[in-house]
Amino acid sequence: MTKDDDDRPGNQAREFEGDFMNATRQLMAGAARLGFSAAVGGRITLLRLCSCDRDDVARNVLRPFPTGIGPAHLLHWPKGGIYPLVPYSNRIKDGVLLFQGKRYELPPHPDARPHTLHGHAHRMVWETISLTQSHVTMRHVHAAGAEWPWPFSATLDIDLEPTRAFLALSLRNEGQTPMPGGIGLHPYFQHDPDDRVAFDAPIDWPVTSDYRATLPQNRSAPASAGPFPPGEVTLYRSGWRGLCVIDRTNGDRIEMRADPIFSHFVLHRPADARHLCAEPVSHVADGFNLFADGHGGTGTVVLEPGDALKGSVTISLIAAGAND
Q1: How many whole angstroms separate alpha carbon 267 and alpha carbon 82?
Q2: pTM as predicted
Q3: pLDDT tens across 56-92, in order?
Q4: φ, ψ for residue 71 (rounded to 5)?
Q5: In the chain, what are the helix, strand and coil shares in percent, each to the nearest 5?
Q6: Burial, 250: exposed, middle or buried (Cβ in 10 Å; 0-12, 13-18, 19+)?
Q7: Is residue 98 exposed (0-12), middle (13-18) or buried (19+ Cβ within 10 Å)?
Q8: How far apart are CA 189 and CA 195, in angstroms?
Q9: What span, in angstroms and rounded, lies between the C-alpha atoms of 142 and 65?
Q10: Cα of 220 vs its chain's centroid, Å
């Protein structure tokens, strides 16, 4: 891929340093609205959808990204919107990545020590490279460094329609040697403790107390989960069929559909039940190291120089009673 000098990996790589409110823009499609910020990690900050094309009332599907956020807050996961997960999702055990016989030490995340967490792209400045009333393309370019030893570029394409949002995420190896790669999306859905959540992902990876995955014991986990019992709920699953349905207590239905590359699925509901994270991801937590140890089914992808990992997700709102 040919690049101009100003587009070389690393030239755009810097952390957000500005004012969040001034860094946010919106897409529109009828009454639907999608807020986004390239400067604040290439994230979606707001998603309001209609239940049909003729509906002139849009409702929040996501918990909105909080206001009053400064650069220092981005490291600690402000709870709202959607942020892209690149070049990997979840944790890398002890901040040590094993790949093709080599050992790479990565900086631990302060909230997950001694492990890493979700990479660093969510707190870096992305650039807007295409924008219309209902479409945006954002891109981040990373030079090899402490956070990730290989150069890469990531692109998030977003298209908004009145009843749904289409998200396409890609990760490309911009280096001269192979690298492991993973992609995912981390949404914060509106949630009530009595909401019902259904997803068909039969392979369960038990979660440790420090949120790592252990090897599967159950390969026939139930397809439906919820309403959940009180307290925190965290599930790591694989074999996901690419559909998650959230039936809200107000009668609305949220559907999330994903491409097969997102064969893994993470669900996290905090103890206070303020939101629901239902995350389409390409690999399991610490999957690269499990892969290096010879375990299968981790979702690990080895990207050769110039190779890209791509996947799309659609989030839709369906009116109460439409499925009766």
Answers
A1: 14
A2: 0.91
A3: 889 999 999 988 776 677 777 789 999 999 999 999 9
A4: -55, -40
A5: 5, 40, 50
A6: exposed
A7: middle
A8: 11
A9: 25
A10: 25
